[in-house]
Write a structure and sequence with these properties.
Blueprint (H helix, E strand, L loop, with lengths): L1 H24 L2 H7 L5 E5 L25 E4 L7 H4 L5 E6 L4 E8 L6 E3 L24 E2 L5 H4 L4 E4 L2 E7 L5 E13 L2 E15 L7 E4 L7 H4 L1 H4 L2 E5 L7 E6 L9 E4 L9 E3 L1 E6 L2 E2 L4 H5 L3 E3 L6 E3 L1 H17 L3 E3 L8 E3 L5 E5 L1 E5 L4 E3 L6 E5 L2 E4 L1 E3 L7 E3 L1 H4 L3 E5 L4 E5 L4
Parallel strand pairs: 4-11, 5-10, 18-28, 19-27
Antiparallel strand pairs: 1-22, 2-13, 3-4, 3-9, 5-11, 6-9, 7-8, 8-9, 9-10, 12-13, 12-29, 14-30, 15-18, 16-17, 16-23, 20-21, 21-26, 23-24, 25-26, 29-30
Protein name: Peptidase A1 domain-containing protein
GO molecular function: aspartic-type endopeptidase activity
Keywords: Aspartyl protease, Disulfide bond, Hydrolase, Protease, Signal
Amino acid sequence: MAASAAASSRRGFLRLLAAAAVLAAFGVWAARAAGSSDDRALLSVASLFPGPACPATAEHGPSAAASARMRIVHQHGPCSGRALSTGNYVVTVGLGTPASKYTVVFDTGSDTTWVQCRPCVVKCYRQKEPLFDPAKSSTYANVSCSDPACDDLDSNGCTGGHCLYAVQYGDGSYTVGFFAQDTLTIAHDAIKGFRFGCGEKNSGLFGKTAGLMGLGRGKTSLTVQAYDKYGGAFAYCLPASSSGTGYLDFGPGSAGNNARLTPMLADKGPTFYYVGMTGIRVGGQQVPIAESVFSTAGTLVDSGTVITRLPATAYTALSKAFATGMSASGYKTAPAYSILDTCYDFTGLSDVSLPTVSLVFQGGACLDVDVSGIVYAISQAQVCLAFASNGDDESVAVVGNTQQKTYGVLYDLGRKTVGFAPGSC
Protein backbone atom coordinates (compact mmCIF):
# COMPACT_ATOMS: atom_id res chain seq x y z
CA MET A 1 0.00 0.00 0.00
CA ALA A 2 2.82 2.37 0.97
CA ALA A 3 4.81 1.44 -2.16
CA SER A 4 1.76 1.97 -4.33
CA ALA A 5 1.14 5.32 -2.67
CA ALA A 6 4.77 6.31 -3.19
CA ALA A 7 4.62 5.34 -6.86
CA SER A 8 1.41 7.27 -7.24
CA SER A 9 3.02 10.24 -5.53
CA ARG A 10 6.01 10.08 -7.91
CA ARG A 11 3.68 9.89 -10.90
CA GLY A 12 1.76 12.86 -9.57
CA PHE A 13 4.99 14.80 -9.07
CA LEU A 14 6.13 14.00 -12.61
CA ARG A 15 2.76 15.15 -13.95
CA LEU A 16 3.15 18.34 -11.95
CA LEU A 17 6.61 18.91 -13.45
CA ALA A 18 5.24 18.34 -16.94
CA ALA A 19 2.39 20.76 -16.30
CA ALA A 20 4.85 23.30 -14.91
CA ALA A 21 6.92 23.09 -18.10
CA VAL A 22 3.86 23.75 -20.24
CA LEU A 23 2.75 26.64 -18.06
CA ALA A 24 6.22 28.17 -18.10
CA ALA A 25 6.22 28.06 -21.89
CA PHE A 26 3.15 30.25 -21.94
CA GLY A 27 4.36 32.58 -19.21
CA VAL A 28 1.71 31.48 -16.72
CA TRP A 29 3.96 29.74 -14.20
CA ALA A 30 6.35 32.68 -14.08
CA ALA A 31 3.46 35.09 -13.64
CA ARG A 32 2.23 33.16 -10.62
CA ALA A 33 5.73 33.01 -9.21
CA ALA A 34 5.94 36.79 -9.43
CA GLY A 35 2.61 37.20 -7.63
CA SER A 36 -0.96 36.03 -7.79
CA SER A 37 -2.93 36.49 -11.00
CA ASP A 38 -4.74 39.37 -9.30
CA ASP A 39 -1.48 41.17 -8.55
CA ARG A 40 0.97 40.72 -11.41
CA ALA A 41 0.96 39.70 -15.05
CA LEU A 42 3.93 38.40 -17.01
CA LEU A 43 4.64 40.12 -20.33
CA SER A 44 6.97 38.87 -23.05
CA VAL A 45 8.84 41.95 -24.28
CA ALA A 46 9.07 40.44 -27.77
CA SER A 47 5.26 40.32 -27.96
CA LEU A 48 5.18 44.13 -27.98
CA PHE A 49 6.54 44.25 -31.51
CA PRO A 50 4.97 43.02 -34.80
CA GLY A 51 5.68 39.53 -36.02
CA PRO A 52 7.15 39.14 -39.51
CA ALA A 53 4.28 37.17 -41.01
CA CYS A 54 0.51 36.96 -40.92
CA PRO A 55 -0.66 33.63 -39.44
CA ALA A 56 -3.26 31.43 -41.07
CA THR A 57 -6.79 32.68 -40.40
CA ALA A 58 -8.33 31.14 -37.30
CA GLU A 59 -11.92 31.37 -36.18
CA HIS A 60 -12.52 32.94 -32.77
CA GLY A 61 -15.40 33.56 -30.44
CA PRO A 62 -18.78 31.97 -29.80
CA SER A 63 -20.18 31.94 -33.33
CA ALA A 64 -17.29 31.30 -35.67
CA ALA A 65 -19.63 30.30 -38.49
CA ALA A 66 -21.75 33.44 -38.25
CA SER A 67 -22.85 34.86 -41.59
CA ALA A 68 -22.04 38.42 -40.52
CA ARG A 69 -18.55 37.80 -39.16
CA MET A 70 -15.62 39.79 -40.51
CA ARG A 71 -11.94 39.44 -39.76
CA ILE A 72 -10.23 42.29 -37.91
CA VAL A 73 -6.53 42.92 -38.46
CA HIS A 74 -4.16 44.76 -36.17
CA GLN A 75 -3.41 48.40 -36.81
CA HIS A 76 0.28 47.91 -37.65
CA GLY A 77 0.54 44.16 -38.15
CA PRO A 78 1.62 42.22 -41.24
CA CYS A 79 -1.92 41.07 -42.04
CA SER A 80 -2.55 44.49 -43.61
CA GLY A 81 -1.78 47.30 -41.19
CA ARG A 82 1.61 48.53 -42.37
CA ALA A 83 0.52 48.83 -45.97
CA LEU A 84 -2.50 50.83 -44.89
CA SER A 85 -0.57 53.19 -42.58
CA THR A 86 -3.48 53.69 -40.22
CA GLY A 87 -3.54 53.83 -36.43
CA ASN A 88 -6.82 51.94 -36.21
CA TYR A 89 -8.22 48.47 -36.74
CA VAL A 90 -9.72 47.65 -40.11
CA VAL A 91 -12.19 45.25 -41.75
CA THR A 92 -13.04 44.42 -45.36
CA VAL A 93 -16.54 44.99 -46.75
CA GLY A 94 -18.22 44.67 -50.12
CA LEU A 95 -20.03 47.57 -51.75
CA GLY A 96 -22.15 47.76 -54.88
CA THR A 97 -23.50 45.26 -57.42
CA PRO A 98 -21.40 43.42 -58.30
CA ALA A 99 -19.64 43.90 -54.97
CA SER A 100 -16.15 45.37 -54.86
CA LYS A 101 -14.06 44.88 -51.72
CA TYR A 102 -12.84 47.79 -49.62
CA THR A 103 -10.77 48.01 -46.47
CA VAL A 104 -12.26 50.46 -43.98
CA VAL A 105 -11.60 51.63 -40.46
CA PHE A 106 -14.42 50.58 -38.14
CA ASP A 107 -15.35 53.18 -35.56
CA THR A 108 -17.85 53.05 -32.70
CA GLY A 109 -17.36 56.78 -32.15
CA SER A 110 -19.05 57.95 -35.37
CA ASP A 111 -22.20 57.18 -37.33
CA THR A 112 -21.88 57.72 -41.08
CA THR A 113 -20.15 55.07 -43.16
CA TRP A 114 -18.31 56.43 -46.20
CA VAL A 115 -15.83 55.51 -48.91
CA GLN A 116 -13.90 57.61 -51.39
CA CYS A 117 -15.66 57.76 -54.76
CA ARG A 118 -14.87 58.38 -58.38
CA PRO A 119 -14.56 60.79 -60.05
CA CYS A 120 -13.41 62.57 -56.88
CA VAL A 121 -13.46 65.98 -58.53
CA VAL A 122 -12.29 67.84 -55.41
CA LYS A 123 -9.79 65.93 -53.24
CA CYS A 124 -9.03 62.32 -52.36
CA TYR A 125 -6.06 60.87 -50.50
CA ARG A 126 -4.20 57.87 -51.89
CA GLN A 127 -5.74 54.54 -50.90
CA LYS A 128 -4.74 50.91 -51.37
CA GLU A 129 -7.74 49.75 -53.43
CA PRO A 130 -9.27 51.49 -56.46
CA LEU A 131 -11.84 54.17 -55.64
CA PHE A 132 -15.46 53.08 -55.53
CA ASP A 133 -17.07 53.85 -58.89
CA PRO A 134 -20.84 54.46 -58.62
CA ALA A 135 -21.20 54.08 -62.39
CA LYS A 136 -20.16 50.42 -62.13
CA SER A 137 -22.80 49.47 -59.57
CA SER A 138 -26.29 48.63 -60.83
CA THR A 139 -27.82 49.26 -57.39
CA TYR A 140 -26.26 52.66 -56.62
CA ALA A 141 -28.49 55.72 -56.21
CA ASN A 142 -28.04 59.17 -54.75
CA VAL A 143 -30.31 60.07 -51.83
CA SER A 144 -32.63 62.95 -52.72
CA CYS A 145 -32.83 66.11 -50.65
CA SER A 146 -36.48 65.35 -49.88
CA ASP A 147 -35.68 61.92 -48.43
CA PRO A 148 -36.09 61.91 -44.61
CA ALA A 149 -32.73 60.11 -44.43
CA CYS A 150 -31.05 63.33 -45.53
CA ASP A 151 -32.35 65.02 -42.37
CA ASP A 152 -30.78 62.27 -40.24
CA LEU A 153 -27.32 63.61 -41.07
CA ASP A 154 -25.60 65.83 -38.51
CA SER A 155 -24.47 68.11 -41.33
CA ASN A 156 -26.12 68.12 -44.74
CA GLY A 157 -26.65 70.16 -47.87
CA CYS A 158 -28.28 69.94 -51.27
CA THR A 159 -27.16 70.26 -54.87
CA GLY A 160 -29.15 69.41 -57.98
CA GLY A 161 -31.75 67.71 -55.80
CA HIS A 162 -29.13 65.37 -54.32
CA CYS A 163 -28.35 65.19 -50.59
CA LEU A 164 -24.84 66.12 -49.48
CA TYR A 165 -23.14 64.99 -46.26
CA ALA A 166 -20.18 66.32 -44.29
CA VAL A 167 -18.37 64.80 -41.31
CA GLN A 168 -15.65 66.53 -39.29
CA TYR A 169 -13.71 64.38 -36.81
CA GLY A 170 -12.08 65.43 -33.56
CA ASP A 171 -8.56 65.17 -34.99
CA GLY A 172 -9.36 67.54 -37.87
CA SER A 173 -9.96 64.82 -40.47
CA TYR A 174 -13.02 65.26 -42.66
CA THR A 175 -15.09 63.84 -45.50
CA VAL A 176 -17.63 65.58 -47.77
CA GLY A 177 -19.65 64.19 -50.67
CA PHE A 178 -22.94 62.76 -51.85
CA PHE A 179 -25.19 60.82 -49.50
CA ALA A 180 -26.09 57.66 -51.40
CA GLN A 181 -27.44 54.15 -51.08
CA ASP A 182 -26.26 50.79 -52.37
CA THR A 183 -25.87 47.18 -51.31
CA LEU A 184 -23.37 46.66 -48.48
CA THR A 185 -21.95 43.17 -48.02
CA ILE A 186 -20.52 42.17 -44.65
CA ALA A 187 -19.12 38.66 -44.70
CA HIS A 188 -21.97 36.63 -46.29
CA ASP A 189 -24.80 39.06 -45.54
CA ALA A 190 -26.08 41.64 -48.04
CA ILE A 191 -27.76 44.79 -46.73
CA LYS A 192 -29.74 46.38 -49.55
CA GLY A 193 -30.41 50.09 -49.68
CA PHE A 194 -27.65 50.86 -47.19
CA ARG A 195 -27.09 54.62 -46.91
CA PHE A 196 -23.50 55.85 -46.90
CA GLY A 197 -21.29 58.74 -47.90
CA CYS A 198 -19.73 58.79 -51.36
CA GLY A 199 -16.75 60.98 -50.54
CA GLU A 200 -15.56 63.57 -53.06
CA LYS A 201 -13.46 65.66 -50.64
CA ASN A 202 -11.60 63.71 -47.98
CA SER A 203 -8.54 64.38 -45.88
CA GLY A 204 -7.01 63.22 -42.62
CA LEU A 205 -5.58 60.30 -40.72
CA PHE A 206 -7.18 57.47 -42.68
CA GLY A 207 -3.94 56.01 -44.00
CA LYS A 208 -4.53 54.09 -47.22
CA THR A 209 -7.94 52.72 -46.25
CA ALA A 210 -10.95 53.29 -48.50
CA GLY A 211 -12.96 55.00 -45.79
CA LEU A 212 -14.75 54.32 -42.53
CA MET A 213 -17.55 52.15 -41.15
CA GLY A 214 -19.68 54.05 -38.61
CA LEU A 215 -20.91 51.87 -35.75
CA GLY A 216 -22.24 54.57 -33.43
CA ARG A 217 -25.77 54.92 -32.06
CA GLY A 218 -27.04 57.53 -34.54
CA LYS A 219 -29.63 56.96 -37.28
CA THR A 220 -27.11 56.84 -40.14
CA SER A 221 -24.91 54.20 -38.47
CA LEU A 222 -24.72 50.61 -39.66
CA THR A 223 -25.88 49.58 -36.18
CA VAL A 224 -29.21 51.39 -36.59
CA GLN A 225 -29.72 50.83 -40.33
CA ALA A 226 -29.36 47.07 -39.85
CA TYR A 227 -31.34 47.02 -36.58
CA ASP A 228 -34.12 44.81 -37.97
CA LYS A 229 -31.54 42.25 -39.08
CA TYR A 230 -29.18 42.22 -36.09
CA GLY A 231 -31.21 43.73 -33.26
CA GLY A 232 -28.84 46.65 -32.83
CA ALA A 233 -26.12 44.38 -31.45
CA PHE A 234 -22.55 43.68 -32.48
CA ALA A 235 -19.29 42.63 -30.91
CA TYR A 236 -15.64 42.71 -31.84
CA CYS A 237 -12.42 41.28 -30.46
CA LEU A 238 -9.12 43.04 -31.04
CA PRO A 239 -6.06 40.76 -31.13
CA ALA A 240 -3.33 40.95 -28.50
CA SER A 241 -0.55 40.36 -31.00
CA SER A 242 0.41 42.76 -33.74
CA SER A 243 0.47 39.79 -36.10
CA GLY A 244 -2.83 38.37 -34.89
CA THR A 245 -6.42 38.66 -36.08
CA GLY A 246 -9.72 39.28 -34.34
CA TYR A 247 -13.33 39.50 -35.43
CA LEU A 248 -16.29 41.84 -35.87
CA ASP A 249 -19.63 40.06 -35.61
CA PHE A 250 -23.26 41.19 -35.66
CA GLY A 251 -26.23 39.95 -33.66
CA PRO A 252 -27.19 39.64 -29.94
CA GLY A 253 -25.14 36.46 -29.39
CA SER A 254 -21.98 37.78 -30.99
CA ALA A 255 -20.00 38.00 -27.72
CA GLY A 256 -21.19 34.72 -26.24
CA ASN A 257 -22.77 34.21 -22.83
CA ASN A 258 -19.87 35.17 -20.58
CA ALA A 259 -19.88 38.92 -21.20
CA ARG A 260 -19.71 41.11 -18.10
CA LEU A 261 -22.48 43.65 -18.68
CA THR A 262 -22.82 47.29 -17.68
CA PRO A 263 -25.69 49.67 -18.52
CA MET A 264 -25.41 51.83 -21.63
CA LEU A 265 -26.08 55.43 -20.58
CA ALA A 266 -28.15 56.54 -23.56
CA ASP A 267 -28.95 59.99 -22.18
CA LYS A 268 -25.37 61.19 -22.64
CA GLY A 269 -25.57 61.78 -26.39
CA PRO A 270 -26.86 60.39 -29.70
CA THR A 271 -23.67 58.81 -31.06
CA PHE A 272 -21.28 57.59 -28.38
CA TYR A 273 -21.49 54.53 -26.14
CA TYR A 274 -21.39 55.95 -22.63
CA VAL A 275 -20.94 53.73 -19.57
CA GLY A 276 -20.48 54.43 -15.87
CA MET A 277 -16.94 53.80 -14.70
CA THR A 278 -16.78 53.55 -10.91
CA GLY A 279 -13.17 52.71 -10.12
CA ILE A 280 -9.74 51.34 -11.02
CA ARG A 281 -7.71 48.54 -9.45
CA VAL A 282 -3.93 48.18 -9.75
CA GLY A 283 -2.20 45.03 -8.55
CA GLY A 284 -5.54 43.79 -7.24
CA GLN A 285 -5.96 46.82 -4.97
CA GLN A 286 -8.55 49.57 -5.34
CA VAL A 287 -6.93 52.88 -6.30
CA PRO A 288 -8.21 55.71 -4.07
CA ILE A 289 -10.32 57.71 -6.55
CA ALA A 290 -13.68 59.24 -5.69
CA GLU A 291 -16.47 57.86 -7.91
CA SER A 292 -17.55 61.44 -8.59
CA VAL A 293 -14.33 61.95 -10.56
CA PHE A 294 -15.67 59.58 -13.24
CA SER A 295 -19.30 60.73 -13.12
CA THR A 296 -18.47 64.41 -13.64
CA ALA A 297 -17.82 64.12 -17.40
CA GLY A 298 -18.73 60.48 -18.03
CA THR A 299 -16.93 57.61 -19.76
CA LEU A 300 -17.32 56.24 -23.27
CA VAL A 301 -16.00 53.10 -24.96
CA ASP A 302 -14.46 53.71 -28.38
CA SER A 303 -12.83 51.40 -30.91
CA GLY A 304 -11.24 54.35 -32.71
CA THR A 305 -9.23 55.76 -29.78
CA VAL A 306 -5.89 54.04 -29.19
CA ILE A 307 -4.90 55.09 -25.66
CA THR A 308 -7.35 55.27 -22.75
CA ARG A 309 -7.79 58.84 -21.51
CA LEU A 310 -8.75 59.52 -17.90
CA PRO A 311 -9.68 62.55 -15.79
CA ALA A 312 -6.50 64.12 -14.41
CA THR A 313 -7.22 63.10 -10.82
CA ALA A 314 -7.90 59.49 -11.81
CA TYR A 315 -4.85 59.25 -14.04
CA THR A 316 -2.51 60.68 -11.40
CA ALA A 317 -3.68 58.08 -8.89
CA LEU A 318 -3.40 55.24 -11.43
CA SER A 319 0.08 56.30 -12.55
CA LYS A 320 1.31 56.56 -8.97
CA ALA A 321 0.00 53.10 -8.05
CA PHE A 322 1.48 51.55 -11.19
CA ALA A 323 4.85 53.26 -10.69
CA THR A 324 4.97 52.00 -7.10
CA GLY A 325 4.46 48.44 -8.31
CA MET A 326 7.12 48.79 -11.01
CA SER A 327 9.59 50.37 -8.58
CA ALA A 328 9.13 47.45 -6.20
CA SER A 329 10.33 45.16 -9.00
CA GLY A 330 13.34 47.38 -9.71
CA TYR A 331 12.52 48.34 -13.30
CA LYS A 332 14.46 51.23 -14.78
CA THR A 333 12.42 54.30 -15.75
CA ALA A 334 12.59 55.93 -19.20
CA PRO A 335 11.72 59.40 -20.55
CA ALA A 336 8.12 60.31 -21.31
CA TYR A 337 6.81 59.97 -24.86
CA SER A 338 4.18 62.44 -26.08
CA ILE A 339 1.11 62.04 -23.83
CA LEU A 340 2.57 58.93 -22.15
CA ASP A 341 4.56 59.91 -19.07
CA THR A 342 5.03 56.69 -17.09
CA CYS A 343 7.69 54.84 -19.06
CA TYR A 344 10.31 52.12 -18.54
CA ASP A 345 13.45 50.76 -20.17
CA PHE A 346 13.17 47.02 -20.83
CA THR A 347 16.43 46.74 -22.78
CA GLY A 348 17.94 43.27 -22.40
CA LEU A 349 14.86 41.82 -20.70
CA SER A 350 12.90 38.95 -22.21
CA ASP A 351 10.00 39.01 -19.73
CA VAL A 352 8.69 41.60 -17.29
CA SER A 353 6.19 41.35 -14.44
CA LEU A 354 3.60 44.14 -14.52
CA PRO A 355 1.02 45.16 -11.91
CA THR A 356 -2.41 44.17 -13.18
CA VAL A 357 -4.89 46.93 -14.10
CA SER A 358 -8.68 46.58 -13.93
CA LEU A 359 -11.42 49.04 -14.89
CA VAL A 360 -14.63 48.72 -12.86
CA PHE A 361 -18.07 49.76 -14.17
CA GLN A 362 -21.62 50.10 -12.93
CA GLY A 363 -23.32 46.81 -12.19
CA GLY A 364 -20.03 45.23 -11.14
CA ALA A 365 -18.70 44.65 -14.66
CA CYS A 366 -14.93 44.56 -14.64
CA LEU A 367 -12.47 44.85 -17.51
CA ASP A 368 -9.29 43.13 -16.32
CA VAL A 369 -6.95 44.63 -18.88
CA ASP A 370 -5.01 41.96 -20.76
CA VAL A 371 -1.27 42.18 -20.23
CA SER A 372 -0.94 43.20 -23.89
CA GLY A 373 -3.01 46.31 -23.15
CA ILE A 374 -1.32 47.56 -19.99
CA VAL A 375 1.66 49.13 -21.74
CA TYR A 376 2.41 50.66 -25.14
CA ALA A 377 5.84 50.16 -26.70
CA ILE A 378 7.70 52.87 -28.57
CA SER A 379 10.90 50.81 -28.46
CA GLN A 380 12.37 48.24 -26.09
CA ALA A 381 14.05 51.13 -24.28
CA GLN A 382 10.79 53.07 -23.97
CA VAL A 383 7.68 51.13 -22.93
CA CYS A 384 4.96 53.23 -21.32
CA LEU A 385 1.81 52.77 -19.29
CA ALA A 386 -0.92 52.83 -21.95
CA PHE A 387 -3.08 55.43 -20.22
CA ALA A 388 -2.98 59.23 -20.39
CA SER A 389 -4.46 62.23 -18.62
CA ASN A 390 -7.16 64.46 -20.08
CA GLY A 391 -5.46 67.37 -18.34
CA ASP A 392 -8.57 68.17 -16.30
CA ASP A 393 -11.49 66.47 -14.59
CA GLU A 394 -14.19 67.87 -16.88
CA SER A 395 -13.28 66.15 -20.18
CA VAL A 396 -14.90 62.79 -20.92
CA ALA A 397 -12.93 59.63 -20.16
CA VAL A 398 -12.40 57.26 -23.10
CA VAL A 399 -11.69 53.53 -22.88
CA GLY A 400 -9.40 53.04 -25.88
CA ASN A 401 -8.76 50.02 -28.08
CA THR A 402 -5.40 49.15 -26.47
CA GLN A 403 -7.17 48.27 -23.23
CA GLN A 404 -9.90 46.33 -25.06
CA LYS A 405 -7.55 43.77 -26.62
CA THR A 406 -8.51 40.05 -26.35
CA TYR A 407 -12.00 40.92 -25.03
CA GLY A 408 -15.22 40.41 -26.91
CA VAL A 409 -16.63 43.93 -26.56
CA LEU A 410 -20.42 43.82 -26.95
CA TYR A 411 -22.67 46.76 -27.83
CA ASP A 412 -26.39 46.02 -27.59
CA LEU A 413 -28.84 48.84 -28.35
CA GLY A 414 -31.85 46.60 -27.76
CA ARG A 415 -30.81 45.65 -24.23
CA LYS A 416 -29.05 48.99 -23.62
CA THR A 417 -25.88 47.30 -22.41
CA VAL A 418 -22.17 47.21 -23.11
CA GLY A 419 -20.30 44.03 -22.21
CA PHE A 420 -16.80 42.61 -21.93
CA ALA A 421 -16.22 38.89 -22.58
CA PRO A 422 -12.68 37.81 -21.60
CA GLY A 423 -10.50 35.58 -23.75
CA SER A 424 -12.48 35.98 -26.96
CA CYS A 425 -9.53 36.08 -29.38
